Amino acid sequence: MIIGIPKEIKTLENRVSMTPGAVDTLVRQGNELLVEVGAGLGSGLSDDEYIAAGAKMVTAAEAWGAQMVIKVKEPLPEEYQYLRKGLILFTYLHLAAAESLTHALLDSETIGIAYETVTLPDGSLPLLTPMSEVAGRMATQVGARYLEKSQGGRGVLLGGVPGVAPALVVVIGGGVVGTNAARIAMGMGARCMILDLSHKRLQYLDDIFQGRLITMASTEPNIRAAVKKADLVIGAVLVPGAKAPKLVTREMLSTMKEGSVIVDVAVDQGGCVETIHATTHDDPIYEVDGVVHYGVANMPGAVPRTSTFALVNQTLPYAMRIARDGVAALKNDPGLALGLNTFEGKLTCPAVGEAFGLESLTPEEALELL
Asked: Any catalytic annotation for residue 268?
């Protein structure tokens, strides 16, 4: 198969979808790799390394002209021109928060396979997990920074000092993002509360953190009470493939401390905070009712070296299967099939259909048409 690796064009997005080592593996499998000039530079990977791995360095248009394009982030409007029938696009899509992209993929009849909805038999999300780990750990670091007075925050040190209480970090959602955010928060000496709908998950978190973590059921009254006391709120809610529910309302915001900080990691799925909107690394924050909001939708792009290698570790085996078998690879792997979001003009992610009022098929129904 001819595989294209374009350079990411999202603001300050420095990740790349395949490392030279991964390119070498795909080339040895018999594939032709077209890598856009400079695609890996942001992650410290030179064109010469890709050439040595067997890639051909090309323009953006040439990379997008491949049979399968592997990316990190969703296509931006400038890239919609490259979408076409027969193209397999393998990347993060987050369509429930991207109506224009959804229509662009459907209108072009592109086969869109989304990293974030590929699922293992145990229900875990193997291609979302590595970036959730990075974003969760970063969320606490970022929050600590913006709590500094010079950054617009309350002027609170996350871990406090002897004689002065540490900050309270409230994490909404106890999944991969929330667990990693809590780990870093407690490692920095903060008090940490985590809210989740699953009592079983809260039992697990209480166990692994040996009772040092405050666990609460994720109910509206509990969220209201928690954010009122919080210095830092981290939104870590995930409904796979669907738009995030708005759990922190505008009215709750008025009860929060002036200079407190919200970091909503769920922003790429619309966010779980009513007042959040997507921001960029070069303009990451804004204030509402005296509360600092951080809404960068590609947080792991700030640490591209770590993020690129963590992502490729997980995506490469799937990319190899698709390169070998084409779309038939999805018929052979029900978990990979769940990654299918658009197929030849048909929406194949019911959660996205629900978000936008569009008719949809299940991936299985669409693949039966092959």
From this structure: yes
